[in-house]
Amino acid sequence: MKTNLKNLRRFSTFLFALACLSLPPAQAQKVDRTKPPELGTPPSLTLPQIQKATLSNGIRVVVMEKHGVPLVQMNLMLRAGAALEPQDKIGLASLTAAMLKEGAGDKSSLELADAIDYLGASIGTTADNQSLWAFLHTPLSKFDEAFALFSDIVLKPTFPANELERLRKERLTSLVQMHDQPTTVAAVAASKLVFGEKHAYGRGTMGNEKTIRGLTIEDVKGFYNQYYHAANAVFVVVGDVKTADVVAKLEKTFGSWRKGEPATLKIPAADQVKGRTVYLIDKPNAPQSVIRISRVGADRLTKDYFPIAVMNTILGGSFSSRLNNNLREVHGYTYGAGSSFDMRLAPGSFTASSSVQTAVTDKAMTEFFSELHRISEKVSDQELNRAKNYLALGYPGDFETASQIAGQLGEMLYYGLPDEYFNSYIKNVLAVTKEDVQRVAKKYVDPENIAVVVVGDQKTIQKGLEGLKLGKMKTMKIEDVLGKMPVL
């Protein structure tokens, strides 16, 4: 049987090759390979209905039933992010999140890890500036057992002191490693310079050597007790489940979680960058220069969201963008260049960035600013339509898996977006005009008021950068950004 199948495959392959060879030459010549293929018609997106419920203690629950694949994704979102930690305890929110999995219920850290692996599930915890996120991804057949472990991790963490010391050493080691990571240095520097070290978006979430060494188990327990409760919690569940069953399961376990008082999270808008300064951070003998050009951008709820998305796609948000085409395809200065808007509760950053060959740092910078200026001019119909189609065609791909859908629903809940937001996304993208793109480019991309960070070999690149006369230049050391390298 195997031999017959093998022979049949070979014969089929032969027939296909013969058919291809028999095509007339003119047919093969119709393809113009000098032009990129046209994008198809943007699809529509219609998601299953969003189901909502509230537990007896006030916890909101959102469920989207996605049948067909026996998997469940459960996300817990807590208002317990780094913006709530004291200035002298930077890193406390992320440390508390990490400690949740280091022992819970009657299990140690290793026992928890083994139990999760045995079920073929995954559980993660992390904290950003604004929130704590706890994730459960599990086969449907193991949902009950995995949910029990997840519940213990959130509700019954033991916070063992020895695990805190291990995490402390890991974080100090990470700080040491960051000194040899130019891209990280540039990102940290840009955040501090644009937002200021005391702003939630400027100080990072991991902490510095002083705060990492100073955090205690009492600090972790105190942060947990203050912010981990029902008033700050929202659940999102997506998968092969029934809403009533999920709500009943959550009520049984989390319905008795203490209510607490809702945290007040106020993140002020940072002052905009004034003027243009080049911050040259010396990385001796670096083979590349990391360029990061940044300023305060827009918040997530801006009415300009869709015009910004289209404009940034043209500028640097896709492989065929102007920045990438200029610096990579035309000049060969880099493997990739791009731009992005980090939209949060308060305006996050607009950033254009790349890593370029040391010898062409000044030339690459010239091209960056050429594109930053040019984007405020009216774009062509072709560029506009390609950018809109790029976003529209790619959007359904953000909803292929349960974890992707849960992440999108979490964003919707966090920012108070309407239930129909996802289904109307493509329509809103396609409604953007050339005038919209030009307007937001002028408003949010101002190359005259922007911070320019370059991490590279100062002795090689300083003279060329000074010759561009972009503005005043400040030279810095990596220690000025990250502090002195910790002694382990």
Key features of this structure:
Cytochrome Bc1 Complex, Chain A, domain 1, 14 strands, disordered N terminus, 488 residues, globular, alpha+beta, 6-stranded mixed beta sheet, 2 domains
3D structure, described in words:
The structure is a single chain. The chain is built from 19 helices and 14 strands. It folds into 2 domains: 51-254, 2-Layer Sandwich (Cytochrome Bc1 Complex, Chain A, domain 1); 276-482, Cytochrome Bc1 Complex, Chain A, domain 1. It has helices at 2-21, 25-28, 92-99, 109-119, 143-155, 161-178, 182-195, 209-214, 217-227, 243-254, 305-315, 322-330, 361-374, 381-394, 402-415, 421-430, 434-444, 458-467, 478-482, and strands at residues 51-54, 60-65, 71-78, 103-104, 107-108, 122-127, 132-139, 233-239, 276-282, 288-296, 337-341, 349-357, 450-456, 472-477. Mean pLDDT is 93; it is low at 1-29. With 488 residues, the chain is α+β, with helices and mostly antiparallel strands. The strands form 3 sheets. Strands 1-2-8-3-7-6 form a 6-stranded mixed beta sheet, with helices on both faces. Helix 11 packs across helix 17 (434-444).
